[in-house]
Amino acid sequence: MVQPRFVRPTPSSPSSGAGEPNSSNLYAANCGPAVGLSHDAIAAAFCAFGEVNGVYPADESGVRVIVSFADPFSAKSALEALSGRPCPDLGGRTLHIRYSLLQLPSQVNECVPVSLSSSDLNIPGLFLLPDFVNAEEEKQLLAAVDTQPWIGLAKRRVQHYGYEFCYGTRNVDTKNHLGELPPFVSPVLERISLFPNLDYDPASLKLDQLTVNEYPSGVGLSPHIDTHSAFEDCIFSLSLAGPCIMEFRRYSASTWKVASTTTDEEEKPDTSTCIKKALYLPPRSMLLLSGEARYAWNHYIPHHKIDKVKDKVIRRSPRRVSFTLRKVRNHPCRCEFPQYCDSQQQT
Ligand SMILES: O=C(O)CCC(=O)C(=O)O
Ligand SMILES: [Fe+2]
């Protein structure tokens, strides 16, 4: 079953007379299966305020959920009664609750024209190389990862090599080196060193972290900028098995916030001040995000089963596997985009 999608309300979201979002859905942080509270237990605690239609994971952390009520009045009562106070029915945990909005499919499918070439997007530092690996190499890479154990997230599966990527903090633990990258990626690493336009700090190119993502059809990735303090400038992503659309968004007034990148509950800064561009990533292509593309633009894979590319309708294949290769950063980031940079954020 496809899980409904929820987004954070913005100032322009429809609201009730009191200026609150007129929503039946609540986002609740600090409860969930990862702290021993099942969705059923959470539903039981919230149903004291009205009929609960469902409890869903808000993201992959296991400690943030969406509670969906049958009506907005129940949601309002629950929010007022439970937010910021220890909840005896939920092990005495203090929940942090706010409204959440159901995102309708028509809103998901906003039409951003999709380009086939990275140069059409005119985003400095963004490069797409089609046919980076051939069909035989693709087969071998897929076979290699399929012999390794997968970690199941809410909607997709992942593997981490070199350093584990932690979805709670969107960072890596630099003290926990898992070992060298596996031999099956060596040919890819070799070819990366021949990548055109690689006029970068060589430190940025000693790639030592690999995350393999496996997306079933219709599953995407929330908009995010890879945490500046976690990884160096160059981020490479190899697409295998199936295509996808990657959308790039530049928000005019954005600040770095961990919450905005950890959650499947897609945070929506005011999209009226956001430039959107989209690129088709064919299987076997390599994408490089660097400079402005890496530091200032959110990248996003829409959660669609069908994408429109030029005049063609393209159905996502049952599986897309990506290899994201990065270099873990061991010093603060000093990029030219402090407004998006956790290392340079004034708190
Ligand atoms: O699947 C991809 O190509 C992108 C993955 C990604 O953005 C990430 O792991 O941060
Ligand atoms: Fe990313």
From TrEMBL:
The keyword GTP-binding does not apply. It holds the Pfam family 2OG-FeII_Oxy_2. GO terms for biological process: demethylation. Keywords: RNA-binding. Residues 206-329 form the Fe2OG dioxygenase domain. Residues 1-21 are annotated as: Disordered. GO terms for molecular function: demethylase activity; oxidoreductase activity; RNA binding. The keyword Transcription regulation does not apply. Residues 24-102 form the RRM domain. Gene3D superfamilies: 3.30.70.330, Alpha-ketoglutarate-dependent dioxygenase AlkB-like. InterPro entries: AlkB-like (IPR027450), AlkB-like_sf (IPR037151), ALKBH4 (IPR032857), Nucleotide-bd_a/b_plait_sf (IPR012677), Oxoglu/Fe-dep_dioxygenase_dom (IPR005123), RBD_domain_sf (IPR035979), RRM_dom (IPR000504). Belongs to the alkB family. This is Alkylated DNA repair protein ALKBH8 homolog isoform X2.
